[in-house]
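Fig. S4 source data, part A: sequence.
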Amino acid sequence: MASIVPEPHPADPRPGDLRLRGMATAPAERGRGLGAALVAACLAFAREEGAPRVWLNARTPAVGLYARAGFARETGVVEVPGIGPHVRMSRVP
């Protein structure tokens, strides 16, 4: 599952920013391309909506998935209280 919602970028808000969040696949299904397909579907939606940028906070094990989808790192590893280490990333859809 994945969700993409209107949310201003925390460091550089622009009208129409979308945030990819809540991305998850069942552990038994990982490694089958489902995450990449979900990201692609969210980016297609963002293009259809005319979003100037999609951003996200990636859990550190998922940084590679998002990098392969064209997302660029914006921060180093940041500890999100109660959740764990994340990296903020973004890209133009």
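Fig. S4 source data, part B ends here. Residues 3-91 form a domain with the Aminopeptidase fold (CATH 3.40.630.30).
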